[in-house]
Amino acid sequence: MLKEKEVQNLIEVTVRFAGDSGDGMQLTGSQFSDTTAIVGNDLSTLPDYPAEIRAPLGTVYGVSGFQLHFGSTDIHTPGDRPDVLVAMNPAAIKKNIDELKTGGIIIVNTDSFDKKNLQLAKYDNNPLEDGSLKGYQVFPVPIASLTSKALEGTSLTQKEISRCKNFFALGIMYWLYNRPVEPTIEWIKNKFKKAPEFIDANQKALQAGYNLGDITEIFSTRYSVEPAKLPKGIYRSISGNEATALGFLAASVRSKLPLFLGSYPITPASEILQYLSTYKNFGVKTFQAEDEIAGITAAIGAAFAGHLALTTTSGPGLALKTEAIGLAIMTELPLVIVDVQRGGPSTGLPTKTEQADLLQAVYGRNGEAPVAVLAAQSPSDCFTMAIEASRIAVKYMTPVILLTDGYIANGTEPWKVPKSSELPSFEVKFRTEKEGFAPYLRDSNLSRPWVKLGTPGLEHRIGGLEKANISGNVSYDPDNHDRMVKLREQKVKNIVNDIPDLTIDGDESGELLVLGWGGTYGAITEAVIKARQKGYKVSQSHLKYIFPFPKNTGVVLNKFKNILIPEINLGQLSKIIRSEFLLPVIQFNVVRGLPFRTSDIEDKIIEILGGKE
Amino acid sequence: MAENIETKVIKLTAKDFSSGQDVRWCPGCGDYSILAQVQRTFPEIIGDKKENVVWISGIGCSSRFPYYMETYGMHSIHGRAPAIATGVKIARPDLSVWVATGDGDLLSIGGNHFIHACRKNIDLKVLLFNNRIYGLTKGQYSPTSEKGKVTKTTPFGSVDYPFNPVSLAIGSDATFVARAMDRDAKHMQEMIKRAAGHKGLAFIEIFQNCVIYNDGAFDLLTKKDTKDDNILVLEQGKPMIFGKNKDKGIKMDGYKPAIVDLSHNGNSINDVLVHDEFDESPLRATFLAHLTDYDGFPTPVGVFRQIKKDTYDHGIEEQISGVVKMKGEGDLDKILFNGNTWEVN
User: Fold this and answer.
1) Which of A35, A546, B269, B323 gives A373 a disulfide partner, CB atoms 3.0 to 4.6 angstroms apart?
2) Domain range holding A346?
3) Cβ-nearest to B67 among A235, A453, A461
4) Residue A471 near chain B (CB below 8 Å)
């Protein structure tokens, strides 16, 4: 009889699944994440895949990866370096081995280590045999042939059987980290409802992988990660793009405004359009336009009609929408523009993350063209900020740009689901009164009235030409233009009265504040926590409202001797902070198309504090 | 004095559709005629609910149009009027949505939006003010300027081929395609009414004279002594006859047009092609659109084609009500708590 395996308790683990882009690594990773969430761990994920749908098999650039960091404590990032690498082929080892922690675990599909695949991965010698993996714990498993064996006698073709091997690998990982297989079995049953032979096969492969740990001597130890202590409530796992879509749906329900999305497919934002197109029974209207410009201009038309109007895109699309954003500014119509930032310039790195559209969002238009700019800080925060962007847009009759990024858009984390009744409501009052109406009258916020098309007696014309104050007639008067330019700026600045103050995590003043914005929140938070654990005095603030900044931003910044701004760009927030507050800031910029490594930020903190604990 | 409690049906007039803004086109511009015909026909087309009318335009002389109409309107950015109008129509399918545009606006910078609005059969009425020149930028050649045209940007003559807007609209599957001329008020009014009555994308190319930069571009078609020999007025069910003496007919010679001389013995009216606006096939309309490719052939005006096809905006409405029927009205909590959830105690 096999002896009971030893179970070792871990606080946190980082796992990376890697294989060909057709190997199903994204699916395997997200299944492992969902199950891990269900057993109560906190987690954060990072899908990292090539832009090609099926990059050439076996090549290093065709490797698709999915990293997951989970634990029994608060998890803020997908982890710097993995503890465990699941490698489906030699290329997956080649691409990832440098990042694996020394002594880390490699679970490897040995079947793919033939001459051809070694050559494709540009290995002269088999790394499983030449001693180059000496510093790691390598668990060689013939995953492909064991999957075939487990599925002997099924009606599946050899090719179809081979496609099940990711479930075998997932089974191994479930055993190794003590996770139940049931949630994935449920998922399989649902996914292959119409093809029962695949339900059977995938389930068998998963179970066979799981059993491998029990019945063989390959693994001597299992690991257990206790549930994290999260606030009470009902949770689900959510990605930034799904949270964004849900946020706008919620905004529509809570404002009682019908939602209109005009959009054009673009990586990594397309999913928002996909999600929103499923909510038809909420009356959501999605328009997949002929191009980016039609996406936003159709949304402007819908805003004119009286809908909650939205357009979603990434950096290249935002560039194309620029002129139309100006039209929304001039016509003072509410509009939300979501930019899921990716690596640039030009086509850049479509599937990778970056924060380099900040200046484009804040300043990138002709004329004096202020818009509100908001940024979400984590996958689930996209939900909150989508509602915020909608609320501000309709209250101030202005376009609002919401920045997210490829990392938080595709990454997932557990989300404590709010009840709809707990969400902010912001009912809109459309102007219907004829008496005293003028299209550019202003309320105390300087917002002009919103009139639903079809309202009798309020017929009026708006457009891109400069408007006379109040009457809205075309005006070339120099003094009027000066007044209107300033009014539009002031209106957007008035939003400052409607947003929360910037908070400080840590000491209220001191030597160093790490200031971030958007999707770097997790990495900065973890770095700050680690530096504090080493005794360094460092505080953190994170901006979600960038134009306008929260009212107390200057006050907060002036409390600290040094301000460190880590950004995945060349210092765009740094530029704005310097010019707005005349403060010297320390930039920290790494633009690799990937989230920050926590350790890099931590090292920078320690460098600035110079060992002053 | 007794209170008058009698309610009167208010009948709107052309004047009710005038916004009262000073019209700022050049004196003699063909745009005045288009504005007048629209304002004259709208009481009949719209009835008394002018709040249900929306005019969207892009940039150019033509695009000032919405300012002069006492309806809802937006003078937007260059080329984008069809896309903005699409958003309005999808959001509010009950409204009557009109686009005023020019040859540069619709066919150059806005070409993509135009063909896709046609393809989707969005229920928009698109009036193309075609003067074959860029007017507001002061005289550069346009995508409908003829090859060889000398303009400010083509001092040695244009080497560019022009678009045939009617052919482009038919090729993009517009479901109503017509042509009118600024100088023929009555005919234009008829075309506007026909477009208004069409469910789906209705496109009217209107030949419009630019008195400053392209004066006389359509003289052959509009001057009393030449127009009859150069215009073919398309009428449903009627043979295609033109000429001062109504003695020339159009027939097909293979796929090419030929002229039947009806004054010649032996030729019969039965040899002449009969117009059928409602022909499902686009071939006849395309053939007519391309008559102008051949020297000596008249330019057709009237309705080239009108077919029935469900509109995009109606498709969206129908899909939504279908999904509501299938799934019930959306319940936000149900969606929020959808999928794999777990409870932390």
Assistant:
1) A546
2) 239-422
3) A461
4) no
Say yes or no for a CB contact (<8 Å) between A461 and B75. yes
Task: Name the A residues in 321-340 with CB < 8 Å from any B CB.
Answer: 323-324, 326-327, 331
Q: Distance between CA A61 and CA A551 in Å, rounded?
A: 46
User: pLDDT tens digits for B24-67?
Assistant: 999 999 999 999 999 999 999 998 899 999 999 999 999 999 99
Q: How many CB pairs under 8 A join A and B?
A: 202
CATH assignment at residue B129: 3.40.50.970
Same domain, A147 and A173: yes
| Averaged pLDDT for residues B312-319 | 98
Does residue B120 sit in helix, strand or coil? helix
Q: Would you place residue A1 in the very low, low, confident or very high pLDDT band (cuts 50, 70, 90)?
A: very low
CATH at A564? 3.40.50.920
Nearest to B76 among A235, A262, A463 (CB): A463
**Domain range for residue B55?**
14-228+303-317
Task: Share the mean pLDDT of chain A.
Answer: 96
Q: How far is it, in rounded angstroms, from Cα A56 to Cα A104?
A: 28
Contact at CB, A297 and B19, closer than 8 angstroms: no
pTM of the prediction? 0.95
Residue B8: per-residue pLDDT: 59
**Model pLDDT, residue A48:** 87
From chain B, the residues in CB contact with A309 under 8 A are: 87
C-alpha neighbours within 13 Å on the C-beta side of residue B130: 26
Q: Using alpha carbons, select from B103, B99, B71 the residue that is nearest to residue B85.
A: B99
Residues A167, A260: one domain? Answer: no
> Do residues A412 and A290 share a domain?
yes
Contacts of A473 in chain B (CB under 8 A): 21
- Asked whether A253 and A282 are in contact (CB, 8 A), the reply is yes
| A77 and A103 assigned to the same domain | yes
In this structure, the answer to whether residues A336 and A367 fall within a common structural domain is yes
Burial label for A611, CB within 10 Å (0-12, 13-18, 19+), is exposed
